[in-house]
Protein: Citramalate synthase
Amino acid sequence: MAERIYLYDSTLRDGSQAQGIDFTVADKLAIASALDAFGIDYIEGGWPGANPTDDAFFARVPQTRFAKVSAFGMTRRAGRSASNDPGLQDILNANTSAVCLVGKSWDWQVETALKVSISENLKMISDSLSHVLDQGREAHFDAEHFFDGYKANRAYALEALKAAHEAGASWIILCDTNGGSMPSEVYRIVSDVKSMLPDANLGIHCHNDTEQAVANSLAAVEAGVRQIQGTINGIGERCGNANLIALIPTLMLKMGFETGVSMEQLKEIGSLSRLIDDRLNRVPNRHAAYVGKSAFAHKGGLHVSAMARDSRSYEHIDPALVGNTRLILVSDKAGRANVLNRLEQMGIEVAADDERVTELVKIVKEREALGYAYEDASASFELLARGLLGQLPRFYDLLSYRALNECRMDAKGHADTLAEATVKLSVAGSTVMTVAEGNGPVNALDQALRKALTPHYPVLEAMHLSDYKVRILTPSDATAALTRVVIESRDSDGHAWHTLGVSANVIDASNDALFDALTWFLMKRGVAAQK
Structure:
């Protein structure tokens, strides 16, 4: 049997302390349910009594199938008994099965921050944990600033741990609160703690101020800790916390440990990562380890050629183990292997020795030199390829278009802008001309095209433009600069695709991207092309 690592998630408490993050009660309930379904052992819901959101969460804390919900707080105040401390009582009133109390383990912090004697601090730790246990709860002790405290005064830092251990703490968590420790230090110090308290259950809580929270957590595991605290996507105060999204696959797939997450559940880790981003209205990090869209993306021709022989050439694991997929990119660095692999992924059949593949590679390189970027616009690449291979359906032909932008000033000098677009196109054997207004020329053009096409292709009601980006490619040309427009479109099922256009005229570039977006959608929906 593999050794067991216990996962303690602090996203709802420590993660919410990050700048710009403000979970609602609904967010916290949804995230807690997802963490439980994924197989997390402990879910730290927040600090009861600290704010109305945390109080509301604990009042409605969901029934979990697997995880234990934990309430976080601090040891009793100096001069009070544990049973007569309002803050400690708030924590216990949350009625969670587990309680995690933070206490000082650095003598300098005790004397300067708490302003109590170092002996009183030890009593605060012992009394508080004993009281938690007396209430029938599982007690965890977070030894705050432990690594800095150990380096400053080893004896006292160990005394703090000993006080928690003798009080009966189920877990003693060693905290790198300032995030400044090195992996070699963590390994050495944890090894010493393990030798001094051989029968204690140890955990690790790392911050990411030197970008080493994951490395420090793994070093601690190698030295003997069996609980890891962290957050989803590493969110947290300052530079964040240890990233459980990176830690869990590494523990399971690289180090051979068992966790509460099954191999089948591990395939859903990307969905868990994206859930947090969605709740925070953030764009997922495409370069995130294991779960990012680019985690298994291959661009260099040499790499792709080797990958065609054996995926182990440039992949450390099978992407399917973490629910991800391999992505072969097409760019100016592409070779025939890139293009052939990408065509295969798109379901386009072509012989490996087909000369049109060589021509396609040449065209891609030429276009990328002009400013096209097909690795971020795979839909436009597919249309380009199908056009060269004679497989591109034609749903309409744009005969002409005009886009106007009118700005009117009212009596108070406020600007009122209105855009208007006129399109003339051929569809289903007839010529159609339409006019539409919009909040800008691109929006007006999009509305005019839809007005003309939807009667013939009603399925277009199911797609919409969800993002629009413009990049200046030749800034030295000032207002005459070449621009690249990338459009993200989505359908009613939430599927997204990206198209692009490049021109010195931003409206022309936008029109090209719109043409590709509409064409790709109709093609994928199996709509019959015009005759």
In short: The longest strand covers residues 397-409. The chain has 18 helices and 16 strands. The chain has three domains: 6-279, 297-388, 397-524. The radius of gyration is 29 Å.
